[in-house]
Design goal:
The chain has 492 residues and is mainly α. It has a single domain, classed as Up-down Bundle (Cytochrome C Oxidase, Chain A). Helix content is 71%, strand content 0%. α1 runs parallel beside α3 and α6 runs antiparallel to α7. The chain is globular. Bound molecules: protoporphyrin IX containing FE and copper (II) ion. InterPro entries: Cyt_c_oxase-like_su1_dom (IPR023616), Cyt_c_oxase-like_su1_sf (IPR036927), Cyt_C_Oxase_1 (IPR000883).
Length: 492
């Protein structure tokens, strides 16, 4: 067992940092639980176990999609902030502004959906928001888009502040990415992985968010000046560049928790390497050009872009994923790992990420996509890596900060397996239904699909029970700190 510290002193939160951190964590947990209950509502409706009017189903689906995507982004930005602030000087006011803008945006989204009746899905794909057949008003669609814009501005501020802070320490973004060591030279082993990952995300996701902002403004103009027609294919390209990038950024921010925390629990160093730098540099390019895999049914797309989307789908996630999972496994193998909630969650996240991208790679193949496109195979894939991959990364940080050091309490012994089991039942129900060609985004299912829906509902209910236990544990832990956990020491 090593002497490596679980709670290095440079990680302590100042008083103000702790206030902002607690606000983020408490809000994120609350929204997750609420959105999960909306998810369960959809599953119960598809199961015919609960009567949900059709228009309500699509509102719930819209709120769940937008709410979850935004919240997982916000939650993983906490991971990035928490570790990056050890190496560069981030502006707390900007991180707080991101929070405020997010809450304002979330209120706008929820109002657009539950008061305005907007139900055009989180992807707000043109021209659906403006052709509602009077189910919702153009103002509801506009409010929904305004909500996204607010959230986007917050993220943009956060990334700009991060890039600015990184440049002040490392000179430029290339050096922060370690590009100077790609072709040789002695790598500075103390160069933090958190800085490499944060730089990559700050660059790529600000491009993604900007693409989103551009397309949102275009759509907003179109809502109020319908004579300004939009090129639907261009709009779809920008929308999916944004959508793909934003959700992938949550993995790339969340994985910083693995880099920073895993070696502390295994007691082994987990140093930076040339393959690591190569994988992050190549993913930086690929994550931005892979999005055409969402447009494979769009025959009007230039064919080369679809081919690129297919080929890059095979490669885009792989480098970072391979170095991370391989690195994590070799780091933990025979290390005498201390199994606590954070370390168990981190290992779960490696499994969930690994297993969750396999169905995506399969679906990224044009010939398979012809059959699987818009089946529940797709929610099967992304719930897999989000619920069992990214969410555990985020939860790992939360459990770490509340100083959960006692070896597995009874609630962990129950909560953790329940989360994993419920999650697996839930995602395999989607994958199996997708395999049977059950379409996604359908409120009403054929009788032969109902067993999958019902299995999914049961899995979801189990997972939500575990999530409630986690949320209560974490909130109680936050209230007890400081004093209880080292990083909670008030230093200023
Ligand atoms: C207990 C947890 C959850 C349950 C029960 C649940 C349930 C569902 C259901 C039933 C759907 C619609 C599937 C269909 O098209 O037929 C859905 C869609 C979706 N979920 Fe979840 N979900 C959960 C967690 C999450 C999480 C953690 C995230 C992201 C962080 C997420 C993101 C999404 C997204 C983006 C959609 C797509 C919405 C659309 O098609 O427009 N979900 N979920
Ligand atoms: Cu994608």
């Amino acid at each position: 067992m090593s002497t490596m510290q679980l709670y290095p002193a440079d990680e302590a939160l100042t008083r103000n940092e702790r206030i902002v951190f607690n606000l983020y964590v408490a809000s994120v947990l609350l929204v997750f639980v609420l959105m999960m209950l909306l998810g369960l509502t959809m599953r119960l409706a598809q199961s015919t176990w609960l009567g949900v009017p059709l228009d309500v189903f699509y509102r719930v689906m819209t709120a769940h999609g937008a709410g979850m995507v935004g919240t997982i982004g916000l939650a993983s930005s906490v991971v990035m902030w928490f570790f990056l602030r050890k190496y560069v000087k981030l502006t707390l006011a900007i991180f707080a502004a991101n929070y405020v803008l997010f809450i304002l945006g979330a209120v706008a989204l929820l109002a657009a959906v539950f008061i305005g009746g907007y139900a055009g899905a989180w992807t707000f794909l043109y021209p659906l928001p403006v052709h509602s057949m009077n189910v919702w008003s153009p103002h509801a669609a506009a409010l929904f888009m305004l909500g996204y814009l607010l959230i986007g501005v917050g993220f943009l501020l956060f990334y700009l502040d991060a890039m600015w802070a990184i440049i002040r320490v490392y000179g430029n973004l290339g050096r922060a990415l370690g590009l100077q060591w790609l072709f040789g030279g002695e790598i500075d082993k103390s160069h933090p992985k958190a800085v490499v990952a944060s730089t990559m995300v700050a660059i790529t996701n600000s491009i993604g968010v900007l693409a989103g902002a551009v397309v949102l403004v275009m759509c907003l103009i179109n809502i109020y000046f319908p004579s300004v027609g939009l090129n639907a294919l261009l709009v779809k390209n920008l929308t999916y560049l944004f959508g793909h990038m934003f959700i992938n950024a949550s993995i790339y921010m969340g994985v910083i928790a693995v880099y920073e925390m895993l070696p502390r629990y295994s007691g082994r160093p987990y140093p930076i390497s040339r393959p690591f730098l190569w994988s992050w540099a190549s993913s930086l390019v690929m994550v931005l050009i892979v999005y055409p895999h969402h447009l494979m049914m769009d025959y009007a797309m230039p064919f080369w872009m679809l081919v690129m989307g297919q080929i890059i789908s095979y490669c885009a996630g792989l480098p970072v994923f391979t170095v991370t999972v391989y690195g994590a496994l070799t780091n933990v193998y025979r290390s005498g790992m201390r199994w606590r909630m954070p370390s168990s969650l981190l290992m779960l996240s490696m499994f969930g990420w690994a297993a969750g991208i396999i169905p995506a790679i399969i679906d990224g193949t044009i010939s398979v996509n012809r059959v699987m496109h818009n089946t529940q195979w797709v929610p099967g894939h992304f719930h897999f890596y989000l619920l069992l991959g990214v969410l555990p990364m985020v939860l790992a940080l939360m459990f770490h900060v509340i100083g959960q050091r006692t070896p597995a309490r009874a609630s962990d012994k129950l909560g953790f397996p329940l989360y994993v089991f419920g999650g697996l039942v839930f995602v395999f129900a989607f994958l199996a239904a997708g395999h049977e060609s059950t379409p996604r985004r359908f409120a009403v299912h054929l009788p032969q699909w109902l067993p999958y829906d019902q299995a999914g509902a049961i899995g979801a209910a189990l997972l939500i029970t575990a999530m409630l236990v986690f949320a209560v544990q974490i909130l109680v832990g936050l209230l007890r700190s400081p004093g209880h956990a080292d990083p909670a020491r008030v230093t200023g």
